[in-house]
């Protein structure tokens, strides 16, 4: 070990080539006491190679075997070990030298590595919301049992977390989860029939991965975030209110029993919540544009239109049923968004697909990881069997 290594915080990143992953690496560049010990990505070999050369992790994982083989040949001159698939992700999760695992993979694939990392006592910086949505009932009690902190990276949940700092959580009366409203805010259903992939990928305030950007335009992202907040903060969904705030300056708020409201504000930049999770409870300096209230002039609020953007209401419905239903909500959405991005279905079909899958599902109460993955597979199968 290099001398002084004990002062370094050692992190692993699942999803290092994505939007959250690359921004996490920016934070590493700006903080000398962070050391990357493991990286994982889907298939982008070239990007992974350059990350390996810059950050010299002990392990790098590619999801596909083919990509792992190619990477392995390209980085044979480095000290990085290349692995593949779920086995590789699970090996990262339990690495002796790693202290914090940043879960920035997209989708339910994150469930098993997250559980393995908690079991191994690793702190989780959680971006992968699909994991909590589907397996929150397993993950939160396990984290409590293992005394492992789950630190939110999602900007709204980081804001809620920051707004609860030093407060008695039993005194929370309500969570006010803010939403930009997405690129189609204010439109009615008949104005959404001809939405293209390009339209949906234009987010007004945040720059993110493709799937979450589409989720923001349908308000499914906000629905997933309501469920994520329920699990992270132990607050029932009827106490989680979505407030549309198009300027995305207030990242979320918490109301207390005396009527006081704590909020976290800032420019819309994911680097802040990522860095906050990596150094919690410290608050490190960070460069960047600051909120200028005079330039801003005003900030505004609206009620979400859940009749048009049905994805949000369906999330409340899914969590009210509970058990395996949020898994079906999430899995049907994942599949529908993939079909939409492939131009196989229309924008509004996303809602019909989610609704159809939820109606078709026979709920399992308190599902195991196996049952969650089965519900996911059954949902995919059900959707594949439909004609579009
Ligand atoms: P992205 O699509 O930009 O990146 C996903 C990353 O995961 C990529 O590195 C990809 O290679 C990797 N990946 C995908 N499948 C994989 C697999 N099977 N094995 C290993 N790696 C795999 O996505 P993103 O926008 O960074 O989002 C990641 C997660 O963070 C999502 O759950 C999203 O909801 C959440 N999130 C993102 C943002 C944001 O600003 N982007 C904000 C809040 C929450
Ligand atoms: Mg968010």
Quick rundown:
By secondary structure, this protein is of the alpha/beta class.
Bound compounds: nicotinamide-adenine-dinucleotide, magnesium ion
Number of domains: 2
SS class? alpha/beta
Cα end-to-end separation = 57 Å
Task: Give the oligomeric state.
Answer: single chain
Tally of helical runs = 16
Let me know the average pLDDT: 97
Beta-strand content bin: 5-15%
Helix content estimate? 40-55%
Instruction: Name the helix and strand elements from N-terminus to C-terminus, one letter apiece.
Output: EHEHEHEHEHEHEHEHHHEEEHHHHHH
The main sheet comes to: 7 strands, parallel
Name the shape in a single word: globular
Low-confidence stretches: none
Please give the number of β-strands. Answer: 11
Sheet with the most strands: spatial strand order: 4-3-2-1-5-6-7
Rg measurement, Å: 20 Å
Fold and architecture overview:
The protein is of the alpha/beta class and 388 residues long. The chain has 2 domains: 9-152, 3-Layer(aba) Sandwich (Rossmann fold); 157-321, no CATH class. Helix content is 45%, strand content 15%. The strands form 2 sheets. The protein has a 7-stranded parallel β-sheet, with helices on both faces. The protein has a 4-stranded mixed β-sheet with strand order 9-8-10-11, with helices on one face. α2 links the parallel β2 (34-41) and β3 (59-62). α2 (45-55) packs across α3 (65-74).
């Amino acid at each position: 070990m290099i001398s002084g290594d004990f002062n370094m915080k050692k992190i692993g990143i699942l999803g290092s080539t994505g939007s959250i992953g690359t921004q996490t690496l920016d934070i590493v560049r700006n903080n000398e006491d962070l050391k990357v010990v493991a990286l994982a990505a889907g298939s982008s070999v070239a990007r992974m190679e350059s990350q390996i050369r810059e950050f010299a992790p002990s392990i790098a994982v590619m999801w596909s075997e083919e990509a792992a083989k190619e990477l392995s040949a390209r980085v044979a001159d480095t000290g990085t070990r290349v692995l593949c698939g779920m086995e590789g992700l699970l090996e990262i999760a339990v690495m002796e030298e790693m202290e914090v695992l940043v879960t920035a993979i997209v989708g339910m694939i994150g469930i098993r590595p997250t559980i393995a990392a908690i079991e191994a006592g690793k702190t989780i910086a959680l971006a992968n919301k699909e994991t909590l949505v589907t397996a929150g009932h397993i993950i939160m009690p396990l984290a409590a049992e293992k005394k492992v902190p789950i630190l939110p990276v999602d900007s709204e949940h980081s804001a809620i977390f920051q707004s609860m700092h030093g407060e008695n959580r039993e005194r929370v009366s309500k969570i006010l989860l803010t939403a930009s409203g997405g690129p189609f805010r204010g439109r009615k259903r008949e104005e959404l029939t001809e939405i293209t992939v390009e339209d949906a990928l234009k987010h007004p305030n945040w720059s993110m991965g493709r799937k979450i950007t589409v989720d923001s335009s349908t308000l499914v992202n906000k629905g997933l975030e309501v469920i994520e907040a329920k699990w992270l903060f132990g607050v029932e969904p009827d106490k989680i209110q979505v407030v549309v705030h198009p300027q995305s300056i207030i990242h979320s708020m918490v109301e207390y029993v005396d009527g006081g409201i704590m909020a976290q504000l800032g420019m819309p930049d994911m680097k802040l919540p990522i860095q906050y999770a990596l150094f919690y409870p410290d608050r490190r300096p960070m460069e960047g544009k600051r909120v200028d209230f005079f330039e801003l002039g005003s900030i505004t609020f609206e009620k979400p239109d859940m009749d048009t953007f049905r994805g949000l209401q369906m999330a409340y419905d899914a969590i009210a049923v509970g058990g395996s239903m949020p898994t079906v909500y999430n899995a049907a959405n994942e599949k529908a968004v993939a079909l939409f991005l492939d131009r196989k279905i229309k924008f509004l079909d996303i809602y019909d697909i989610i609704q159809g899958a939820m109606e078709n599902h026979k709920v399992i109460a308190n599902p195991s990881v196996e049952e969650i993955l089965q519900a996911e597979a059954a949902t995919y199968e059900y959707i594949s069997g439909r004609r579009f």
